[in-house]
Amino acid sequence: VTLKDKTVSSLDELLAMKFKPSEVTAELGQYVDTLTAVPNSIPAAMVFLGADLKRIIQRLREESPANTKAETRHLRQYSDWNGCGQLHFLPRGACAAEASSDFLLHIELPESSWCMGVKVLPNDAILLMRGGRVYEGSMSTIVIYVFSIYSPDENAKNEGEVEVGTELRQLLQQEVAASIDAVKGKTGANFPPTTTVKGVMPRDVNAIDKKIRCVWHADGPEFVRLQNVRKATGLRRVGNMYYDRGFAEAFLHAASLSHGSLHKVQTHFLRTCLRDNGQLASMIPRGNNGFWVNVMEDLMTSPLLDSYTAHLLEQCRDAKEFRYLSIDATFKINLKIVGQASFHSSAATRSGAIIPEEDAAYRTLTCRGRTGATLAMCGVRSEKARVIANALETELTEAQRQQVLHIASDAPSQEMLQTLQEIFPSLASLALDAMHIVMVYDQNMNNRRSAGGKWLAVIMNKFRRRHPTRTQASWGAFYTGARPGPDAQDVRCMRERLQDPDMPEDAAMRVLEALDPDVPWLTEIDFLESLLAHVSFFHDELQKVSYSGISLQRLIVNIGTSSKFQWLLNDTRYRHAVD
Known about the structure:
By secondary structure, this protein is an alpha/beta fold. It has four domains: 11-66 and 83-149, no CATH class; 208-301, no CATH class; 317-427, no CATH class; 434-577, no CATH class. The chain has 23 helices and 15 strands. The chain has helices at 11-18, 32-35, 41-48, 53-61, 65-73, 166-185, 193-196, 226-231, 245-257, 262-271, 291-300, 303-318, 347-351, 385-395, 398-402, 414-423, 436-443, 451-461, 489-499, 505-513, 524-537, 552-558, 562-577, and strands at 20-21, 103-108, 113-120, 125-130, 133-138, 197-198, 212-217, 220-225, 236-238, 241-243, 324-330, 363-368, 374-380, 406-409, 429-432. The strands form three sheets. It has a five-stranded antiparallel beta sheet. Strands 6-8-7-10-9 form a five-stranded mixed beta sheet.
Protein backbone atom coordinates (compact mmCIF):
# COMPACT_ATOMS: atom_id res chain seq x y z
CA VAL A 1 0.00 0.00 0.00
CA THR A 2 1.42 3.37 -1.02
CA LEU A 3 0.16 6.53 0.74
CA LYS A 4 0.13 9.67 -1.34
CA ASP A 5 -0.68 13.19 -0.18
CA LYS A 6 -3.64 14.68 -2.00
CA THR A 7 -2.92 18.25 -3.08
CA VAL A 8 -5.15 20.91 -4.61
CA SER A 9 -3.71 23.38 -7.08
CA SER A 10 -3.84 27.05 -6.18
CA LEU A 11 -5.59 29.63 -8.34
CA ASP A 12 -2.28 30.94 -9.72
CA GLU A 13 -1.22 27.41 -10.68
CA LEU A 14 -4.53 26.79 -12.43
CA LEU A 15 -4.24 30.06 -14.35
CA ALA A 16 -0.69 29.19 -15.39
CA MET A 17 -1.89 25.78 -16.62
CA LYS A 18 -4.89 27.11 -18.60
CA PHE A 19 -3.46 30.41 -19.84
CA LYS A 20 -0.08 31.70 -20.93
CA PRO A 21 1.65 34.86 -19.70
CA SER A 22 1.05 37.96 -21.78
CA GLU A 23 3.43 40.71 -22.74
CA VAL A 24 0.72 43.28 -21.94
CA THR A 25 1.25 45.03 -18.58
CA ALA A 26 -1.44 45.60 -15.94
CA GLU A 27 -0.87 49.40 -16.01
CA LEU A 28 -0.76 49.58 -12.19
CA GLY A 29 2.21 51.96 -12.19
CA GLN A 30 4.01 52.61 -8.91
CA TYR A 31 1.02 51.42 -6.88
CA VAL A 32 1.49 47.72 -7.58
CA ASP A 33 1.89 46.79 -3.90
CA THR A 34 -1.25 48.71 -2.91
CA LEU A 35 -3.48 47.35 -5.68
CA THR A 36 -2.28 43.75 -5.32
CA ALA A 37 -3.09 43.62 -1.58
CA VAL A 38 -5.71 41.06 -0.55
CA PRO A 39 -8.81 43.32 -0.30
CA ASN A 40 -7.99 45.50 -3.34
CA SER A 41 -8.67 43.14 -6.24
CA ILE A 42 -11.77 45.11 -7.35
CA PRO A 43 -10.02 48.50 -7.77
CA ALA A 44 -7.03 46.76 -9.40
CA ALA A 45 -9.31 45.10 -11.96
CA MET A 46 -10.99 48.46 -12.63
CA VAL A 47 -7.61 50.09 -13.35
CA PHE A 48 -6.82 47.25 -15.75
CA LEU A 49 -10.11 47.91 -17.56
CA GLY A 50 -9.39 51.61 -18.01
CA ALA A 51 -10.35 53.43 -14.80
CA ASP A 52 -8.30 56.49 -13.80
CA LEU A 53 -5.42 55.26 -11.63
CA LYS A 54 -5.09 58.47 -9.57
CA ARG A 55 -8.80 58.58 -8.80
CA ILE A 56 -8.75 54.93 -7.68
CA ILE A 57 -5.75 55.52 -5.39
CA GLN A 58 -7.39 58.63 -3.94
CA ARG A 59 -10.52 56.61 -3.14
CA LEU A 60 -8.39 53.92 -1.47
CA ARG A 61 -6.53 56.38 0.75
CA GLU A 62 -9.48 58.42 2.05
CA GLU A 63 -10.98 57.62 5.45
CA SER A 64 -14.40 56.06 4.89
CA PRO A 65 -16.61 53.20 6.20
CA ALA A 66 -15.78 51.14 3.08
CA ASN A 67 -12.02 51.38 3.69
CA THR A 68 -12.53 50.67 7.38
CA LYS A 69 -14.36 47.45 6.54
CA ALA A 70 -11.62 46.48 4.05
CA GLU A 71 -8.93 46.91 6.71
CA THR A 72 -10.75 44.78 9.30
CA ARG A 73 -12.58 42.16 7.19
CA HIS A 74 -10.17 42.10 4.19
CA LEU A 75 -12.95 42.37 1.63
CA ARG A 76 -14.70 45.01 -0.44
CA GLN A 77 -18.16 45.42 -1.98
CA TYR A 78 -18.84 46.03 -5.66
CA SER A 79 -21.51 48.58 -4.73
CA ASP A 80 -18.84 50.83 -3.14
CA TRP A 81 -16.99 51.09 -6.48
CA ASN A 82 -19.93 51.31 -8.88
CA GLY A 83 -19.53 54.46 -10.99
CA CYS A 84 -15.95 55.19 -9.93
CA GLY A 85 -13.84 56.20 -12.90
CA GLN A 86 -16.92 56.26 -15.17
CA LEU A 87 -17.23 52.47 -14.86
CA HIS A 88 -20.65 51.13 -13.92
CA PHE A 89 -21.40 47.51 -13.01
CA LEU A 90 -24.25 45.40 -14.37
CA PRO A 91 -24.48 42.03 -12.55
CA ARG A 92 -24.56 38.95 -14.79
CA GLY A 93 -25.76 35.57 -13.54
CA ALA A 94 -23.34 33.50 -15.64
CA CYS A 95 -20.39 33.85 -17.97
CA ALA A 96 -21.49 33.53 -21.62
CA ALA A 97 -19.44 31.63 -24.16
CA GLU A 98 -19.03 34.82 -26.19
CA ALA A 99 -18.57 38.29 -24.70
CA SER A 100 -18.82 41.58 -26.54
CA SER A 101 -17.31 43.91 -23.89
CA ASP A 102 -14.88 43.90 -21.00
CA PHE A 103 -16.11 42.49 -17.69
CA LEU A 104 -15.15 41.63 -14.12
CA LEU A 105 -14.93 37.97 -13.13
CA HIS A 106 -15.63 37.15 -9.46
CA ILE A 107 -13.97 34.08 -7.94
CA GLU A 108 -15.11 32.83 -4.52
CA LEU A 109 -12.41 30.80 -2.76
CA PRO A 110 -12.66 29.00 0.62
CA GLU A 111 -10.40 31.52 2.35
CA SER A 112 -10.95 34.68 0.30
CA SER A 113 -12.65 36.27 -2.68
CA TRP A 114 -10.98 37.56 -5.83
CA CYS A 115 -12.00 39.88 -8.63
CA MET A 116 -10.22 39.61 -11.98
CA GLY A 117 -10.46 42.04 -14.87
CA VAL A 118 -11.06 40.54 -18.32
CA LYS A 119 -10.46 42.44 -21.57
CA VAL A 120 -12.24 41.04 -24.61
CA LEU A 121 -10.19 40.95 -27.86
CA PRO A 122 -11.17 39.94 -31.39
CA ASN A 123 -11.38 36.26 -32.43
CA ASP A 124 -12.58 35.02 -28.99
CA ALA A 125 -9.31 36.11 -27.34
CA ILE A 126 -9.17 37.62 -23.86
CA LEU A 127 -6.65 39.20 -21.49
CA LEU A 128 -7.10 38.29 -17.81
CA MET A 129 -5.41 40.21 -14.97
CA ARG A 130 -4.96 38.68 -11.53
CA GLY A 131 -2.69 40.07 -8.81
CA GLY A 132 -0.77 42.32 -11.22
CA ARG A 133 -0.03 39.49 -13.70
CA VAL A 134 -1.70 39.40 -17.13
CA TYR A 135 -2.61 36.15 -18.89
CA GLU A 136 -3.92 35.62 -22.42
CA GLY A 137 -6.25 32.92 -23.66
CA SER A 138 -9.77 32.38 -24.95
CA MET A 139 -13.28 32.65 -23.51
CA SER A 140 -13.82 28.91 -23.83
CA THR A 141 -11.03 28.33 -21.31
CA ILE A 142 -13.03 29.94 -18.47
CA VAL A 143 -15.07 27.32 -16.61
CA ILE A 144 -17.04 28.06 -13.45
CA TYR A 145 -18.02 25.39 -10.92
CA VAL A 146 -20.66 25.92 -8.23
CA PHE A 147 -20.58 23.72 -5.15
CA SER A 148 -23.20 23.39 -2.39
CA ILE A 149 -21.75 22.31 0.96
CA TYR A 150 -23.86 21.28 3.96
CA SER A 151 -22.65 20.09 7.33
CA PRO A 152 -25.22 19.38 10.08
CA ASP A 153 -24.50 20.83 13.49
CA GLU A 154 -25.40 18.68 16.46
CA ASN A 155 -25.48 21.84 18.59
CA ALA A 156 -24.14 20.03 21.64
CA LYS A 157 -24.99 21.56 24.98
CA ASN A 158 -23.39 21.24 28.41
CA GLU A 159 -24.05 17.83 29.94
CA GLY A 160 -24.87 19.02 33.43
CA GLU A 161 -24.59 21.65 36.11
CA VAL A 162 -22.86 21.37 39.48
CA GLU A 163 -24.53 22.89 42.51
CA VAL A 164 -22.13 24.55 44.97
CA GLY A 165 -22.49 26.61 48.12
CA THR A 166 -25.14 24.45 49.81
CA GLU A 167 -23.27 24.26 53.13
CA LEU A 168 -22.67 28.03 53.20
CA ARG A 169 -26.35 28.68 52.51
CA GLN A 170 -27.37 26.46 55.43
CA LEU A 171 -25.04 28.35 57.79
CA LEU A 172 -26.50 31.67 56.67
CA GLN A 173 -30.04 30.38 57.17
CA GLN A 174 -29.17 29.29 60.72
CA GLU A 175 -27.68 32.71 61.50
CA VAL A 176 -30.77 34.51 60.22
CA ALA A 177 -33.08 32.20 62.17
CA ALA A 178 -31.10 32.82 65.38
CA SER A 179 -31.35 36.60 64.90
CA ILE A 180 -35.12 36.42 64.37
CA ASP A 181 -35.57 34.29 67.49
CA ALA A 182 -33.56 36.82 69.53
CA VAL A 183 -35.85 39.64 68.40
CA LYS A 184 -38.99 37.63 69.11
CA GLY A 185 -37.71 36.87 72.62
CA LYS A 186 -37.90 40.58 73.51
CA THR A 187 -41.49 40.97 72.29
CA GLY A 188 -43.81 42.48 74.91
CA ALA A 189 -41.07 44.06 77.04
CA ASN A 190 -42.25 47.13 78.99
CA PHE A 191 -40.40 50.45 79.04
CA PRO A 192 -41.22 52.79 81.94
CA PRO A 193 -42.37 56.18 80.57
CA THR A 194 -40.16 57.99 83.05
CA THR A 195 -37.02 56.62 81.38
CA THR A 196 -38.06 56.52 77.72
CA VAL A 197 -39.93 59.82 77.40
CA LYS A 198 -38.13 63.14 77.43
CA GLY A 199 -39.90 65.65 79.69
CA VAL A 200 -41.83 65.12 82.93
CA MET A 201 -45.10 63.25 82.38
CA PRO A 202 -48.09 63.63 84.78
CA ARG A 203 -48.42 60.66 87.14
CA ASP A 204 -52.21 60.72 87.13
CA VAL A 205 -52.52 60.06 83.38
CA ASN A 206 -52.34 56.47 82.18
CA ALA A 207 -53.10 56.94 78.43
CA ILE A 208 -50.17 59.09 77.34
CA ASP A 209 -50.28 58.31 73.59
CA LYS A 210 -51.90 61.66 72.76
CA LYS A 211 -49.43 63.62 74.89
CA ILE A 212 -46.15 62.38 73.37
CA ARG A 213 -44.54 62.54 69.94
CA CYS A 214 -41.74 60.58 68.30
CA VAL A 215 -38.75 62.76 67.39
CA TRP A 216 -36.08 61.34 65.08
CA HIS A 217 -32.36 61.98 65.54
CA ALA A 218 -29.34 60.63 63.71
CA ASP A 219 -28.80 57.99 66.42
CA GLY A 220 -32.41 56.80 66.61
CA PRO A 221 -35.95 57.78 67.72
CA GLU A 222 -36.87 59.53 70.96
CA PHE A 223 -40.27 60.09 72.61
CA VAL A 224 -40.79 63.69 73.71
CA ARG A 225 -43.65 65.34 75.55
CA LEU A 226 -45.93 67.25 73.14
CA GLN A 227 -45.54 70.52 75.06
CA ASN A 228 -41.76 70.28 74.73
CA VAL A 229 -42.06 69.58 71.00
CA ARG A 230 -44.15 72.70 70.47
CA LYS A 231 -41.55 74.82 72.26
CA ALA A 232 -38.59 73.30 70.40
CA THR A 233 -37.01 74.89 67.30
CA GLY A 234 -35.32 73.18 64.36
CA LEU A 235 -37.86 70.35 64.04
CA ARG A 236 -39.83 69.46 60.89
CA ARG A 237 -43.08 67.55 61.03
CA VAL A 238 -43.91 64.55 58.84
CA GLY A 239 -47.33 63.13 59.64
CA ASN A 240 -47.40 62.69 63.42
CA MET A 241 -43.62 62.44 63.75
CA TYR A 242 -40.80 65.00 63.86
CA TYR A 243 -37.14 65.00 62.85
CA ASP A 244 -34.19 67.34 63.33
CA ARG A 245 -31.36 68.52 61.08
CA GLY A 246 -29.02 65.70 62.16
CA PHE A 247 -31.55 63.08 61.05
CA ALA A 248 -32.08 64.89 57.73
CA GLU A 249 -28.34 64.93 56.99
CA ALA A 250 -27.99 61.26 57.94
CA PHE A 251 -31.03 60.39 55.80
CA LEU A 252 -29.65 62.17 52.72
CA HIS A 253 -26.23 60.60 53.22
CA ALA A 254 -27.71 57.10 53.47
CA ALA A 255 -30.00 57.73 50.48
CA SER A 256 -27.11 58.87 48.29
CA LEU A 257 -25.01 55.83 49.22
CA SER A 258 -27.90 53.44 48.50
CA HIS A 259 -28.99 55.15 45.24
CA GLY A 260 -32.29 56.22 46.79
CA SER A 261 -33.31 52.78 48.09
CA LEU A 262 -35.60 53.42 51.08
CA HIS A 263 -35.19 49.84 52.24
CA LYS A 264 -31.43 50.37 52.57
CA VAL A 265 -32.03 53.72 54.32
CA GLN A 266 -34.21 51.93 56.85
CA THR A 267 -31.51 49.30 57.36
CA HIS A 268 -28.94 52.04 57.92
CA PHE A 269 -30.93 53.54 60.82
CA LEU A 270 -31.48 50.08 62.31
CA ARG A 271 -27.70 49.68 62.47
CA THR A 272 -27.07 53.15 63.89
CA CYS A 273 -29.85 53.13 66.50
CA LEU A 274 -27.71 53.70 69.63
CA ARG A 275 -30.19 55.59 71.80
CA ASP A 276 -31.25 53.63 74.94
CA ASN A 277 -28.84 50.82 73.99
CA GLY A 278 -30.82 50.16 70.81
CA GLN A 279 -33.96 49.15 72.69
CA LEU A 280 -36.07 51.59 70.66
CA ALA A 281 -34.97 50.04 67.36
CA SER A 282 -38.24 48.12 67.32
CA MET A 283 -40.06 51.48 66.98
CA ILE A 284 -38.46 52.19 63.61
CA PRO A 285 -41.21 51.94 60.94
CA ARG A 286 -40.99 48.97 58.60
CA GLY A 287 -41.79 49.09 54.90
CA ASN A 288 -41.03 51.80 52.35
CA ASN A 289 -44.44 53.49 52.36
CA GLY A 290 -45.50 56.00 54.96
CA PHE A 291 -42.82 57.62 57.06
CA TRP A 292 -39.79 57.02 54.82
CA VAL A 293 -41.51 58.19 51.64
CA ASN A 294 -42.86 61.27 53.42
CA VAL A 295 -39.40 62.20 54.70
CA MET A 296 -37.92 61.76 51.23
CA GLU A 297 -40.63 63.96 49.70
CA ASP A 298 -40.27 66.60 52.42
CA LEU A 299 -36.52 66.84 51.93
CA MET A 300 -36.62 66.79 48.13
CA THR A 301 -39.09 69.70 48.00
CA SER A 302 -37.41 71.86 50.63
CA PRO A 303 -36.26 75.34 49.47
CA LEU A 304 -32.73 74.71 50.71
CA LEU A 305 -32.35 71.60 48.59
CA ASP A 306 -33.91 73.32 45.57
CA SER A 307 -31.34 76.13 45.67
CA TYR A 308 -28.53 73.63 46.21
CA THR A 309 -29.73 71.58 43.21
CA ALA A 310 -29.79 74.70 41.02
CA HIS A 311 -26.24 75.50 42.12
CA LEU A 312 -25.08 71.98 41.23
CA LEU A 313 -26.72 72.20 37.79
CA GLU A 314 -24.85 75.42 37.08
CA GLN A 315 -21.62 73.69 38.04
CA CYS A 316 -22.55 70.91 35.62
CA ARG A 317 -23.08 73.45 32.86
CA ASP A 318 -19.67 75.00 33.55
CA ALA A 319 -18.15 71.52 33.25
CA LYS A 320 -19.97 70.97 29.89
CA GLU A 321 -22.07 68.18 31.36
CA PHE A 322 -24.97 69.02 29.03
CA ARG A 323 -23.06 68.32 25.79
CA TYR A 324 -24.15 64.68 25.94
CA LEU A 325 -27.60 63.71 27.27
CA SER A 326 -29.05 60.26 27.86
CA ILE A 327 -32.84 60.15 28.32
CA ASP A 328 -35.03 57.25 29.40
CA ALA A 329 -38.58 56.84 30.69
CA THR A 330 -39.87 54.10 32.99
CA PHE A 331 -43.43 53.38 34.06
CA LYS A 332 -43.06 50.85 36.89
CA ILE A 333 -42.44 53.44 39.61
CA ASN A 334 -45.54 55.42 38.53
CA LEU A 335 -48.00 52.56 38.98
CA LYS A 336 -48.42 53.46 42.67
CA ILE A 337 -49.58 57.02 42.04
CA VAL A 338 -53.05 57.44 43.57
CA GLY A 339 -55.68 59.29 41.56
CA GLN A 340 -54.68 58.44 38.00
CA ALA A 341 -55.73 55.45 35.93
CA SER A 342 -53.29 52.91 34.54
CA PHE A 343 -51.94 53.76 31.10
CA HIS A 344 -53.22 50.32 29.99
CA SER A 345 -56.79 51.45 30.74
CA SER A 346 -59.28 52.57 28.13
CA ALA A 347 -59.68 56.22 27.14
CA ALA A 348 -62.98 56.44 29.02
CA THR A 349 -61.38 55.16 32.24
CA ARG A 350 -58.44 57.56 31.95
CA SER A 351 -60.69 60.55 31.28
CA GLY A 352 -62.82 59.71 34.33
CA ALA A 353 -59.89 59.52 36.75
CA ILE A 354 -59.33 62.15 39.43
CA ILE A 355 -56.11 63.31 37.75
CA PRO A 356 -56.97 64.51 34.22
CA GLU A 357 -55.44 62.77 31.24
CA GLU A 358 -53.38 65.81 30.25
CA ASP A 359 -51.90 66.10 33.78
CA ALA A 360 -51.26 62.38 34.35
CA ALA A 361 -47.71 61.12 34.85
CA TYR A 362 -47.64 57.57 33.52
CA ARG A 363 -43.85 57.53 33.21
CA THR A 364 -40.84 59.05 34.94
CA LEU A 365 -38.38 60.72 32.57
CA THR A 366 -34.74 60.79 33.63
CA CYS A 367 -32.04 62.82 31.89
CA ARG A 368 -28.36 62.08 32.54
CA GLY A 369 -25.34 64.05 31.43
CA ARG A 370 -21.93 63.38 29.95
CA THR A 371 -20.51 61.75 33.10
CA GLY A 372 -23.77 60.17 34.25
CA ALA A 373 -24.98 63.00 36.50
CA THR A 374 -28.77 63.21 36.83
CA LEU A 375 -29.69 66.56 35.28
CA ALA A 376 -33.49 66.28 35.25
CA MET A 377 -36.24 63.98 36.49
CA CYS A 378 -39.96 64.54 35.99
CA GLY A 379 -43.23 62.79 35.23
CA VAL A 380 -44.49 62.63 31.64
CA ARG A 381 -47.69 61.40 30.07
CA SER A 382 -46.05 59.36 27.29
CA GLU A 383 -42.80 58.88 25.38
CA LYS A 384 -43.96 60.78 22.30
CA ALA A 385 -41.42 63.16 20.83
CA ARG A 386 -43.45 66.30 21.53
CA VAL A 387 -44.14 65.28 25.16
CA ILE A 388 -40.45 64.57 25.80
CA ALA A 389 -39.40 67.84 24.16
CA ASN A 390 -41.84 69.90 26.23
CA ALA A 391 -40.68 68.24 29.46
CA LEU A 392 -36.99 68.89 28.73
CA GLU A 393 -37.75 72.47 27.72
CA THR A 394 -39.43 73.01 31.10
CA GLU A 395 -36.77 71.28 33.21
CA LEU A 396 -33.66 72.78 31.57
CA THR A 397 -32.76 76.44 31.24
CA GLU A 398 -32.04 78.07 27.89
CA ALA A 399 -28.30 78.25 28.62
CA GLN A 400 -28.25 74.55 29.46
CA ARG A 401 -30.16 73.65 26.29
CA GLN A 402 -27.73 75.69 24.18
CA GLN A 403 -24.93 73.34 25.26
CA VAL A 404 -26.55 70.05 24.09
CA LEU A 405 -24.79 68.45 21.09
CA HIS A 406 -25.85 64.81 21.25
CA ILE A 407 -28.74 62.85 22.82
CA ALA A 408 -29.02 59.08 23.41
CA SER A 409 -32.50 57.57 23.69
CA ASP A 410 -34.01 54.08 23.79
CA ALA A 411 -36.42 54.97 20.95
CA PRO A 412 -34.72 57.33 18.44
CA SER A 413 -36.57 58.35 15.31
CA GLN A 414 -36.47 60.96 12.59
CA GLU A 415 -39.47 62.71 14.18
CA MET A 416 -37.80 62.85 17.60
CA LEU A 417 -34.60 64.26 16.10
CA GLN A 418 -36.46 67.05 14.32
CA THR A 419 -38.61 67.82 17.39
CA LEU A 420 -35.66 67.96 19.79
CA GLN A 421 -33.71 70.22 17.43
CA GLU A 422 -36.45 72.82 17.92
CA ILE A 423 -35.52 73.23 21.62
CA PHE A 424 -31.83 72.25 21.36
CA PRO A 425 -30.43 74.57 18.67
CA SER A 426 -26.94 72.99 18.76
CA LEU A 427 -28.16 69.38 18.63
CA ALA A 428 -26.26 67.53 15.87
CA SER A 429 -27.16 63.88 16.36
CA LEU A 430 -29.49 61.41 18.05
CA ALA A 431 -28.44 57.85 18.93
CA LEU A 432 -29.87 54.62 20.26
CA ASP A 433 -28.72 54.07 23.85
CA ALA A 434 -26.45 51.03 23.57
CA MET A 435 -26.79 50.00 27.23
CA HIS A 436 -30.61 50.06 27.33
CA ILE A 437 -30.86 46.50 25.98
CA VAL A 438 -28.40 45.40 28.69
CA MET A 439 -30.61 46.98 31.38
CA VAL A 440 -33.68 45.16 30.01
CA TYR A 441 -31.69 41.92 29.92
CA ASP A 442 -30.65 42.26 33.57
CA GLN A 443 -34.17 43.21 34.69
CA ASN A 444 -35.49 39.96 33.23
CA MET A 445 -32.78 38.09 35.16
CA ASN A 446 -34.20 39.41 38.45
CA ASN A 447 -31.79 42.38 38.34
CA ARG A 448 -28.78 40.07 38.48
CA ARG A 449 -25.93 40.16 36.00
CA SER A 450 -25.83 36.71 34.40
CA ALA A 451 -23.09 35.33 32.15
CA GLY A 452 -25.12 36.25 29.08
CA GLY A 453 -25.67 39.75 30.45
CA LYS A 454 -21.93 40.23 30.98
CA TRP A 455 -21.09 39.29 27.40
CA LEU A 456 -23.96 41.41 26.05
CA ALA A 457 -22.59 44.39 28.01
CA VAL A 458 -19.16 43.85 26.41
CA ILE A 459 -20.72 43.75 22.93
CA MET A 460 -22.88 46.85 23.36
CA ASN A 461 -20.31 48.90 25.28
CA LYS A 462 -18.01 48.82 22.23
CA PHE A 463 -20.30 51.44 20.65
CA ARG A 464 -19.19 53.85 23.40
CA ARG A 465 -15.45 53.34 22.92
CA ARG A 466 -13.11 55.69 21.08
CA HIS A 467 -10.40 54.68 18.62
CA PRO A 468 -7.04 56.39 19.24
CA THR A 469 -6.35 57.27 15.57
CA ARG A 470 -9.61 57.25 13.62
CA THR A 471 -12.06 60.12 13.08
CA GLN A 472 -15.77 60.26 12.35
CA ALA A 473 -15.08 59.72 8.63
CA SER A 474 -14.43 56.01 9.29
CA TRP A 475 -18.11 55.59 10.12
CA GLY A 476 -19.59 58.13 7.70
CA ALA A 477 -22.02 60.98 8.35
CA PHE A 478 -24.58 61.00 11.18
CA TYR A 479 -27.66 58.88 10.53
CA THR A 480 -30.84 60.96 10.56
CA GLY A 481 -33.48 58.26 10.16
CA ALA A 482 -33.61 57.97 6.37
CA ARG A 483 -34.13 54.54 4.88
CA PRO A 484 -30.76 52.71 4.77
CA GLY A 485 -29.45 51.41 1.47
CA PRO A 486 -29.45 47.73 0.50
CA ASP A 487 -27.32 45.47 2.68
CA ALA A 488 -24.28 43.65 1.42
CA GLN A 489 -24.61 39.92 0.80
CA ASP A 490 -22.51 38.92 3.83
CA VAL A 491 -24.47 41.27 6.11
CA ARG A 492 -27.80 39.97 4.82
CA CYS A 493 -26.77 36.35 5.34
CA MET A 494 -25.48 37.03 8.85
CA ARG A 495 -28.73 38.83 9.77
CA GLU A 496 -30.77 35.85 8.50
CA ARG A 497 -28.71 33.51 10.68
CA LEU A 498 -29.76 35.53 13.73
CA GLN A 499 -33.33 34.33 13.19
CA ASP A 500 -32.22 30.70 13.62
CA PRO A 501 -28.82 30.65 15.42
CA ASP A 502 -26.60 27.87 14.10
CA MET A 503 -23.10 28.65 15.41
CA PRO A 504 -21.56 25.81 17.50
CA GLU A 505 -20.82 26.60 21.13
CA ASP A 506 -17.05 26.28 20.83
CA ALA A 507 -16.98 28.57 17.79
CA ALA A 508 -19.32 31.05 19.50
CA MET A 509 -17.11 31.25 22.58
CA ARG A 510 -14.02 31.80 20.41
CA VAL A 511 -15.76 34.75 18.75
CA LEU A 512 -16.75 36.26 22.11
CA GLU A 513 -13.32 35.79 23.68
CA ALA A 514 -11.65 37.40 20.66
CA LEU A 515 -13.54 40.68 21.19
CA ASP A 516 -11.45 43.68 22.19
CA PRO A 517 -13.64 45.64 24.66
CA ASP A 518 -11.57 48.83 24.23
CA VAL A 519 -11.96 49.17 20.44
CA PRO A 520 -15.23 50.41 18.88
CA TRP A 521 -17.12 48.49 16.23
CA LEU A 522 -15.72 49.23 12.79
CA THR A 523 -18.07 47.18 10.59
CA GLU A 524 -21.64 45.94 10.75
CA ILE A 525 -20.69 42.35 9.91
CA ASP A 526 -18.42 42.13 12.99
CA PHE A 527 -21.24 43.35 15.24
CA LEU A 528 -23.74 40.88 13.76
CA GLU A 529 -21.25 38.03 14.13
CA SER A 530 -20.85 38.78 17.84
CA LEU A 531 -24.66 38.87 18.27
CA LEU A 532 -24.92 35.52 16.49
CA ALA A 533 -22.27 34.07 18.81
CA HIS A 534 -24.14 35.41 21.84
CA VAL A 535 -27.58 34.08 20.88
CA SER A 536 -26.04 30.72 19.90
CA PHE A 537 -24.08 30.19 23.11
CA PHE A 538 -26.78 31.51 25.49
CA HIS A 539 -29.70 30.07 23.53
CA ASP A 540 -31.49 28.60 26.57
CA GLU A 541 -31.10 31.79 28.61
CA LEU A 542 -32.55 33.91 25.82
CA GLN A 543 -35.80 31.94 25.62
CA LYS A 544 -37.09 33.78 28.68
CA VAL A 545 -40.02 36.07 27.89
CA SER A 546 -39.45 39.71 28.85
CA TYR A 547 -41.91 41.99 30.62
CA SER A 548 -43.00 43.38 27.24
CA GLY A 549 -44.21 39.94 26.14
CA ILE A 550 -41.46 38.96 23.67
CA SER A 551 -38.42 36.77 24.20
CA LEU A 552 -34.97 38.15 24.96
CA GLN A 553 -33.71 36.58 21.74
CA ARG A 554 -36.21 38.62 19.74
CA LEU A 555 -35.05 41.80 21.50
CA ILE A 556 -31.44 41.08 20.51
CA VAL A 557 -32.45 40.23 16.94
CA ASN A 558 -34.29 43.56 16.72
CA ILE A 559 -31.17 45.58 17.53
CA GLY A 560 -29.41 43.80 14.68
CA THR A 561 -31.53 45.52 12.03
CA SER A 562 -29.86 47.94 9.64
CA SER A 563 -31.57 51.07 11.00
CA LYS A 564 -30.94 50.15 14.66
CA PHE A 565 -27.25 49.58 13.88
CA GLN A 566 -27.00 53.03 12.28
CA TRP A 567 -28.68 54.66 15.31
CA LEU A 568 -26.23 52.80 17.58
CA LEU A 569 -23.32 53.90 15.41
CA ASN A 570 -24.27 57.56 15.89
CA ASP A 571 -22.90 57.30 19.43
CA THR A 572 -19.56 56.14 18.03
CA ARG A 573 -19.61 58.89 15.39
CA TYR A 574 -20.22 61.56 18.04
CA ARG A 575 -17.36 60.37 20.25
CA HIS A 576 -14.99 60.65 17.27
CA ALA A 577 -16.37 64.03 16.14
CA VAL A 578 -15.68 65.93 19.39
CA ASP A 579 -12.44 66.66 21.21
